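BUG: 3D viewer hangs when loading the predicted structure for this chain

Environment: internal workstation, default settings.
Expected: structure renders.
Actual: progress bar stalls at 90%.

Input used:
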Amino acid sequence: MKLNPLSDRVVVKQVEAEETTKGGIILTGAAKEKPEMYTVVAVGPGGMVNGEKVEMSVKVGDTVITGKYSGTQVKVDGEELTIVRQEDILAIVEK
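Structure tokens produced before the viewer hung:
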């Protein structure tokens, strides 16, 4: 199944948490902190939102940071994804 977001929505997948600290300590599953970093999986077409034209500035494959409690979590084919509005994306991470 494929998600096609509408309007200014973006489908993102959470980046895996680090398993070791900078000092080399291996973390257990419970000790890992979930990052608010996501990979963009799908992007809506933009268009008119609340009477204003919205241009999409993220693209598939971008790594982004969102607000901690942003979006709606969905499970598609066993994969956990989040759907957020573009305005909930705080930054694009450049590598």
